[in-house]
Amino acid sequence: MSKKYIDEDNLQIAMTEYKDLHEDKIVKTQYDDTVGIVSKVYDNEYGSGEQIFAVVPEQEYGKDPKEVSEVTVLFRGSTGFGNYKIDWTRILTSGTTPIGLPDQTRSSLSQSEQITNTDVLNDWLKADANTVLLRDIML
After folding, report:
1. Per-residue pLDDT for 48 more than 60?
2. Do 32 and 50 fall within a single domain?
3. Number of C-alpha atoms within 13 angstroms, CB side, residue 48?
4. What is the pLDDT at residue 123?
5. Which domain does 63 fall in, by range?
């Protein structure tokens, strides 16, 4: 008897956390199965880089939260450094460094790339800096 270690349906739902999610967005798996609608987004609420999405079934979307019977909670993992985009146009024309939050007014990066950069910085620099500081205090 072979064991099945991964439930395909749950895996597909979990993978949706890496899609472009925002409130009121219908969430679908790669096989076009509907998971639900994003009802609430918690994006770096506590300064630790967390990204949490509450997804409710379509038929329950817009109901009073006390009346909702099912919620799927998606936790997006850390955005890797390899996803950080350097805005060379801004650097060459303004003399700024590639590290730091993107300049929304002059950046040649798309809005999606700017959001990804912010995610990388929140996940790895801001959140981890607190962890390192706490570790040093405890030692």
Report:
1. yes
2. yes
3. 9
4. 67
5. 1-77
